[in-house]
């Protein structure tokens, strides 16, 4: 049996620049990792099988793990088949990229176990039709996402600070968030410029998620959590992606830990990421 972890992400700012004729949007965003993760256990089997114990997420043909498995089998081929058991910790519909991270790990696991030898770019090509965030998780490095979010320019933007993520307990619709957002092709500040040139304590005034206001208009709690994070000492707080998770970035560990404990006591699902976090992308043979 092989084991590995699929880590989540947050968006550090998000500009919606243009709606394309395809219905998709051209964006600019910063991607970095969080410690919130799903755990995979994979072993050889006589047929493909996916189980997600304790989760309401369907383990069916629409699951991105299954879609990634089928894409790999179709375009690369499989000498063996595998069963996947996934412990889901990353909330669904939370703006943390859990499904995309799962798909990316599925590609990497099959590439390793099948000894296929595909490069990172070849794995990204396999993922093109599955989800815009998947290339970020395949590359495994923080960076600036442009285009549909699939073009990733590596950048040293993983905060050297504590990241506290709070899930409000409900999903947020990505199509609805974009539908209620007015694109701005000429924002006052570029995401890349702010993240690479300005200090975290300046981000609240400069870094914007264009999807945040229309989502907060429908889900007031997201705005309330953001305000609470700032009140308890976050240097920067924002919604991740299209929501619904809100995160705060803290310079001091005791302030971050106290904030985590406060939200946890209120019944919120929360996760605390250490400064300068680097995800473990290893795929290990279980003892």
Short description:
The chain is an alpha+beta fold and 287 residues long. The protein contains ten helices and eleven strands. It has two domains: 2-155, Ribosomal Protein S5, domain 2 (2-Layer Sandwich), CATH 3.30.230.10; 162-273, GHMP kinase, C-terminal domain (Alpha-Beta Plaits, 2-Layer Sandwich), CATH 3.30.70.890.
How would you describe this structure to a colleague?
- With 287 residues, the protein is of the alpha+beta class.
- The chain folds into 2 domains: 2-155, Ribosomal Protein S5, domain 2 (2-Layer Sandwich); 162-273, 2-Layer Sandwich (Alpha-Beta Plaits).
- It is 33% helix and 28% strand.
- It contains 10 helices and 11 strands.
- Strands 1, 2, 3, 4, 5, 6 and 11 form a 7-stranded mixed sheet that branches. A 4-stranded antiparallel sheet has the order 8-9-7-10.
- A hairpin with a 5-residue loop joins strand 1 and strand 2 (25-45).
- The protein is globular and about 55 Å long.
- The mean pLDDT is 96.
Chain-wise SSE layout:
Elements: E1 2-19, E2 25-45, E3 49-51, H1 64-75, E4 81-87, H2 98-113, H3 120-127, H4 134-139, E5 143-147, E6 151-154, E7 162-167, H5 174-179, H6 191-197, H7 200-206, H8 212-218, H9 220-231, E8 236-239, E9 246-250, H10 253-265, E10 269-273, E11 284-285
Parallel strand pairs: 3-4
Antiparallel strand pairs: 1-2, 1-11, 2-4, 2-5, 5-6, 7-9, 7-10, 8-9
Helix pairs in contact: 1-2, 8-9
